[in-house]
Fold these 2 entries.
Entry 1:
Amino acid sequence: MNKTYRISENTEYVVSEDLTKEYPEKKYRTYTATTATDPKPVIIKEMDEKRAGIYLALAGIKNRHIAKTQSVHKIDGSSQEPLYIAITECVGHSDENGVAPTLSHYVKKHGPLDTNTALRFALQICDALICVHKENIIHRDLKPDNIMVSEETDDRLACLKLIDFGVSDSAEDPYKNTFIKTSIEDVGTAGYTPHDRWITPRWDIYSLGCILNFMLTGHTPDMHIYSDSWEIRNIIEHCTDEYSARYADAKKLYKEVSHAARIGLWDRIPILRSIPGYRTHTFWKAAIATICYALLIYLGLDIIRHRGLDAQFFIFTLCWFFLPVMIAFDPFYLRYRIKPLRAIRHNTRLFIILQAIGLIFSLFILPNILLALLIN
Ligand SMILES: Nc1ncnc2c1ncn2[C@@H]1O[C@H](COP(=O)(O)OP(=O)(O)O)[C@@H](O)[C@H]1O
Ligand SMILES: [Mg+2]
C-alpha cells in the first residue's frame, strides 16, 4: 500500500514516488504525492524542527526562482524527534515524465551552456539568493542538483527554481559572534561548499560561483576553471575566494554578473563591450573615457604635426596622461587581472586613498598638458 500523509480532516496526500530512492541512507525523504481531489502532484519533503521553521519563513516568500512552499505540518508529535513535512510546488515538465530536470541533468544532457545563458541563469539564482538572504536564511547546499529547470520562461530563457532547503540555517553575524560555532553540521557537497567558520551569505555566494563555472564547463572550479573570458573568470574567482575576499552579498554579485551579461544599452552596441572605459556600463565612466580618448587623439595628432613622430616623447606623454587615469579608474581592470593587486579591491581604505591620489594627479596634470599644448 502507498504511504500516506493525513494533514487535516479531509486532506490526505498519497505518495506516488520516492525521489530520494537512490539514497536509502537518507533520514529525511522527499516524495511526489497527490490528493484524491487534485491530480496535480506536489512535493512532500520531510525535515526536522529547525528546517520546518525555515520552510515556514519560505512559505511567506514570493519569488519566481524559489519553488513555492505551500504549507508546513508536524507529523509525529509523540516521539522525541518530531517529524515535519513541507508541501511545495512540484516543478513540472511535460517532456520529462512530469518532473522537471535538475540543472545538473540539464547541463549533462545539453553540454556546457553558452556564456549568455549561463550568466542569465546565474542572475536568476542570484535573485533567489537576494530574496532568501533578506529573510536571514542561508541555503548552504546550493548545487546543480538543487536547482530545477522549469518549463516556464523568463526573458525567453528557462526559469530556474531553487529547491531543497533541507540543511539551511539562519545567518549569523561574525562580528557580533566572537565565538566560533562548533556545531556547524558537516553538510554540503564537495566542490560546492566553502570551508567557512560562519554561516553568512558568503557561503551561498561561494556555491553560486561554483555553479556558474559548472554551467560553463561541466566541472567545478577545483577540477577545471573557466578561462575563456577573464571578466567571467574573475567573477568565479571572486566568488570562490577565501571568506574575507569574497563578495559580501548577493546584490554585489548580481551587479557584476549583469555587467558581464551586458544587460542594458551596452546590449545594443556590442562594440562598446571591448573598449576600456565603456566596459563597466557606468555612464560617468563612459563620459570620462570619451574625454580621455578625444584628448589622446588630439595629443597624438598634435605630436605628429609639430614634432614628427618622436616616439620617446609620445610614450612619455602617454604615460603621464594615463597614470592618474589608471589609478583612479583602472580602465584596463588591472586590479582584477593581476592577483596581488586584488588586495586593493578588498581594502576599501587603500582603494579610496589610491583613487584620491589619482584624482588629484588628474586635476593637476591634465590642465598642465592642455596648457602646454595650447602654448605650443
Ligand atoms: N519542488 C520540486 N519539484 C520537482 N522536483 C523536485 C522538487 N524538490 C525535489 N525534487 C526532486 O527530488 C530530488 C531530491 O529532492 P531534494 O529536496 O533535493 O532532497 P535531498 O535532500 O535528498 O537532496 C531533487 O534532486 C529533484 O530531482
Ligand atoms: Mg537535494
Entry 2:
Amino acid sequence: MKIRIMLCALVGVLSAAPVAASIDIVKKARCVACHAVDKKMVGPSYREVAEKYKGQADAAALLALKVRRGGAGVWGAVPMAPNDASKISDENLKAAVEWILAGAPS
Ligand code: HEC
C-alpha cells in the first residue's frame, strides 16, 4: 500500500516536470546518427543550427515541424527523413529543439 502511494506520487512528479532537454533525448531518438553537437555529419551540427536561427522567434515551431515531417534544401542536397512519434514524442521533440536552439549545451 505504501509503495503504491509512493509510486503514484513519483509518476505525478515525473509527468509534471518538463523533460530535461539534453543530449540524452537526441541520443535516444537516434538523431545522433546524422547530427553532432559541433561538427557537420550527414546533417548540420546543432551549434550551426542554433547560430542560423538565432533571434528568429518562430524557429522552434518551424524546426519541430521540419524534424517531424522531414525536409531538404536548407543545408544542402541531403534530405532529412521524417521522424515520427515512434522515434520521438511531441514533448521530447519540443525539448530537443529548444535544447538545439539554446546552442546544445552539455
Ligand atoms: C538520416 C539522417 C538524419 C536523422 C536521423 C536526423 N536528421 Fe536532422 N537533418 C538531417 C539533414 C540531412 C538535415 C539538413 C536538411 C536540409 O538541408 O534542409 C537535417 C536538418 C536538421 C535540422 C535543421 C533544419 C533546418 O531546416 O534548418 C534540425 C533542427 C534537425 N535536423 C534536428 C534533428 C533531430 C532533433 C533529429 C532526431 C529526432 C534528427 N534531426 C534526425 C539528417 C538527419
